Amino acid sequence: MQTSETLHNPLAMESIWKLLGKYAIPCVIFLLVNSLYNMVDQIFIGQGVGYLGNGATNIIYPLTIIVLSVALMLGDGSASFLSIRLGENRTREATIGIGSAITFSIIIGLVMAALMAIFLDDLVYLFGCTETLYPYAIGYGRIIIIGLPFVLVGTVLTAIERADGSPKYSMMSLVVGAVTNTILDPIFIFIFKWGLEGAAIATIIGQMLTCFMGIYYIKRFKTIAPKKQDYMVRWSYCKKVITLGISSFITQMSIVIVMAVINNLLTNYGAQSQYGSEIPIAVIGIVIKVNQLVIAATVGIASGAQPIIGFNYGAGNQKRVQQTFLYVVICAEILAVIALIAYQIVPVQIISIFGKENGLYNEFAEKCFRIFLLATILNGFQTVSGLFAQSIGKAVKAAIISLSRQIVFLLPAELILSHLFGIMGVLWAGPVADTLAFVLALVIIMPEWRKFSVKEPMHITTGKNRHMNPVS
């Protein structure tokens, strides 16, 4: 419902491009830095330990993604909940929901870390670990698990900070952690000679700093003022937050499932090829993480647009919702085109950043970039569509879009094509799934987008001319 307060809110008044710059750029930096945590480890590990060390981080990486999937579900869900409720002028409800989500995230983080520590041996084999990689994976994983509760709580708090109108602080809290990790990695690996364990220690120190900065911000909220009783876990509100963030959860968890399947297929079919098992496992982890930078930037743009879309959807500014989505798609596809060109032209140069290895290693890396990521140009629209549906409260459609690429299409393609073509089938499954997921997202999201093709109320105006011109 539109009120005087909502009509004069900057989210309803300012230029969309200006708002995207304000909210999306810090969010992009936030997610890129978050993705760089593991990538920085792999760069230094590749130089100091070798590809077996990188293979081990690929085995442990799904554990981090499992926690991150829950963190993004609660974080993005909280951000959407806060934005929509503020747009509806329901501040008290927003306050209780955010307080509940923060406490719930702390509990879930501790429980997940405890379970992973208990079942670590079983988990590494579930994710395709070989006997050669086992000691590396266990040594690295035992330390990484310690930092996982900080990852979860820190991620939730930074998402809430962005929706609260402090995207720069949100960005800075993660940058501080990432810079700390980057500085400590070479010190612990090369000077202290701690190897993989040193990289893990550097990582969790950075994660702790990010989390502590988030906790510091809690007493400095701009739009809400939670009291002590607001931090009680209220399942009715947590359920709403989870529903709004389920798309992010599915997107990340599908990565875990896919990595487990791909690692096991590479272990099996790699052993039957000239590459062996360890080279494909090490390479695929690097390739996925490199592409994760592009996905992170895309998600960052879409997540940065969530306060704009969520607020205007709640306020009934339909044309503005449609325009914001269009602008986000344009940005995402530009990124996808740049990524595709890089993957096709300089794959060996990219993989060499993570350590220089023999000819077979580079040969498989080149094939992996050029084949597995052949249709990455289609990922921009598919990723943005899921987050758009989430932002307007279409949880089911968001879940279907997010689920489609990794689970509905990629897993069957991996199993079928690997059976037919061996290790190369594992790679060709990537573009097949990307294409099918794009088509499905287009079919689902276009009817929703057309619903917003209505004239904007004439009294909702830009900051430049509040009395005459409709918002654009």
The total domain count is 1
* Poorly predicted residue ranges: 455-472
Please indicate the percent range of residues in DSSP E strands (runs of 2 or more). under 5%
The count of DSSP E runs of length 2 or more, i.e. the number of strands, is: 0
Outline the biggest β-sheet: none
**Euclidean distance between termini CA atoms:** 20 Å
Q: Whole-number average pLDDT?
A: 87
Assign a percent range to the helix content: over 70%
User: Which structural class do the helices and strands define?
Assistant: mainly alpha
Rg, nearest Å: 22 Å
Rough shape?
globular
The topology string of helices and strands comes to HHHHHHHHHHHHHHHHH
Describe the protein.
With 472 residues, the chain is mainly alpha-helical. The protein has one domain. It is built from 17 helices and no strands. Helix 6 (120-126) packs across helix 7. It is globular. It starts with a helix and ends in a 22-residue tail after the last helix.
Summarize the structure.
The chain has one domain (4-450). It contains 17 helices and no strands. It has helices at residues 4-7, 10-13, 16-48, 51-87, 91-118, 120-126, 134-163, 167-191, 195-217, 235-271, 278-315, 318-345, 347-352, 359-372, 379-391, 395-421, 423-450.
